[in-house]
Structure formats: C-alpha cells, structure tokens
Amino acid sequence: MDLPNHHVVAATPPTEAAVATTTAGASPDTDVPLRSPSPSKVSEILHLIQSDDLQQKVEAAREIRRLAKTSQRYRRHFSDAVKPLVQMLLYANSVEANEAALLALLNLAVKDETNKISIIDAGALGPIVGFLQSDHPLQEHATAALLTLSASSVNKPIISAAGTIPLLVEILRDGCMQMKVDAVMALYNLSTHPGNLNLILQAEPVPCIVDLIKSSKKSSKTAEKCTALVESFVGFEEGRIALTSEEGGVLAVVEVLESGSLQSREHAVGTLLTMCQSDRSKYREPILREGVIPGLLELTIQGSPKSQSKAQMLLRLLRDSPYPRSELQPDTLENIVSSLISQIDGEDQAGKAKQMLAEMVQVSMEQSLRHLQQRALVYTPADLPVASCASEVSSK
Predict the structure, then answer these.
(1) Where are the domains of the chain?
(2) Where would you tag: which of 162, 171, 264, 378 has the fewest CB atoms within 10 A of its CB?
(3) Which CATH superfamily is domain 1-177 in?
(4) Cα first-last separation, the chain
C-alpha cells in the first residue's frame, strides 16, 4: 500500500515557521493546477462516504485522499467529508478503513486551517492517540497526522491536553527515523503554546533530541527544530541540567553552531548564551571544553545580525572576566578573543582560534578598505590611484 504525503503549514502568526515533511518513500504534496472540481463527482463521493457499505466508504476515502493530495480546491469541496471520515477511525475491526480515513483526513488538513480545526472538533484526536501506541500498525500515519494538525494554534492546547506529548517522546526514542522527524516537528509546534514547554520537559525528551541532532545533517530543518527546542528548554534549570548531563549534549549544540543553517546557528548560540547568562560559573567551562571559540569567531563575521550580537556577548562571558580590564586594554573583540585563547587547553584549538582571529581581522580590514574605496570613488578625482593603493594594502 502506498505511503502518505503530508505537509505541515503554520496557520498561526508569522513567527511559527512552516514545516514540510514526508513519510519514507513519498514525495511532498504540492498544489498543482487541476481542472475545476466536478460538482457531480464531488456529490457522488460525498454520498459514498456516508454509505452503509464499508467497502464503498473505503474506496470513497481513498478517492478523497487522491484528489485532496494536490488541490486546495478539493480540500475545500470535501470539507463535509470530515465527520464521516472521523467515524471511520472508530471502526475497531478494520485497519483498512482506519488507514483509508486517516490518510484522507491528513490530505484534507494540509494547508487548510479550517479543516485542521474541524477534524479535531469532530473527535479525531481520540482514535489518533490510540494509533500512536507502539504496537499499532498506523502509528507512523498517526504521527504524521499529529504533525499536521498541531500546526493550528487552536489545536495546540487540545492536542497537548490529550496526553500526546509523552507518546511523541516515546516515538522519538523508539520510532523509525521518519517518525522521529515527524514527532520532533510536532513537539516543536506544540512548544509554541504557553505552558506546553513544561509538559514537554517533564517527558524528558532531551536525550532523544540530542541523539536526533547527532544523527541529522546539521543544516537540515530537523536540526533547526531540534536546536530551537533545546534553546527553549535551557530557559529552565531542568533543561540546562538535562543538556549538560547528556553525553555529547553541549557538543551537539556546538556542532550546529559551526555548520548549521543560519537559523540553526542562531538557536545554537542562543542556547549557549542563555546557559552562560543563567550561571556563568557553572556553564562556562563545559561550553569552553567543547571547542566553541572557532565557531563563535566565524559567527561574529558570517552570522545574522542577531547571531553576531549573541556571539560577541557569549565571547565576553566566556573569558576570565566578563568586564573590561582597564583603559589600556579596550574591550574590543580582538582583545576578548586573545584573552580567551590564552586560557584554552590544547595547542590545536588555540592554533585554530588564532588563525580564525587573524582571518576575522583580515576580513574586517578588507571590508573597511572596500568601504573607503567606494567613498573615495565618489569624492576623489578620477586620476588618483585609489585601486592601486587598496591592492597594496590587501596583499599584505
């Protein structure tokens, strides 16, 4: 039997990023131009989905799934099918009917806030939670459905109140890779609702999330959402303890800081900064021990404005004293880093940090020279050798 295609699209304020994911072996749903839905075809399928004949209902559900897969128009036209499809989830003796209905509901919910809410209102959450149990054949589809439904701000508190969070953490621990990805995305969606972070932390997800970061490409959307969750967790003392107690936990964050996407690196540096700000004496050494300095130096040059600011703040907190030493040694980034380098254990790391500091200074000089050159071209007569002057300095 073919596997489902599914998207999660944020239906809440713009701060919640849209997430798209697919089950193994499938390609993402994408809206493509189709002919206008035939009213007679829609009516026929809606009639069949309410039939007393189970096989007709199953075939109608499969047709709804197929048509809604790539068409927002069909998702709208089949909104009246939500209630009979949810009823099919309750058929205790027919996994075939359960699966056909669940996959149809999944495609109806894609990019449709109204259908997401209607599906929960119609009572789908109870059977979906039942499908999440580890021995159920529809566990993977149920995880994908929760991912999609949890993108709705209206659904978030209802889903978390139904006891789904511990089940999602169990999937993080024991599920296949695609289920783990879907589960962490669903947890991320739920974490944006006030109060849910405490519920998630109580389920002890940090070891599973650290493992997922380790096994994921650091620039992936999965690593981004994992690191965003970790950044939220370390706002609580139990979250900070869980991360530092997990072998390789801080290192996993440092690796994302070094090679993640721009957004992931911002979450990573935010995580380490929050830890250091909460208790500098407790977390400074564990952070330094994982070789964070080279990544922070790179971030001060190549990160987003917010990442650059956070990286510089963290560098100040990581040195011996977070305060300027004297008027003779100004609190420049170069002096902060030089102070840190002298404290680093291990020649390799110190050498790499010194090299990166030199490169950072060089880049800063080149940027300044380019700026001066542009100004000179505007304000200086054309016969002055501005370019040759710049080339002599930059070839140093």
Answers:
(1) 1-177
(2) 378
(3) Leucine-rich Repeat Variant (1.25.10.10)
(4) 66
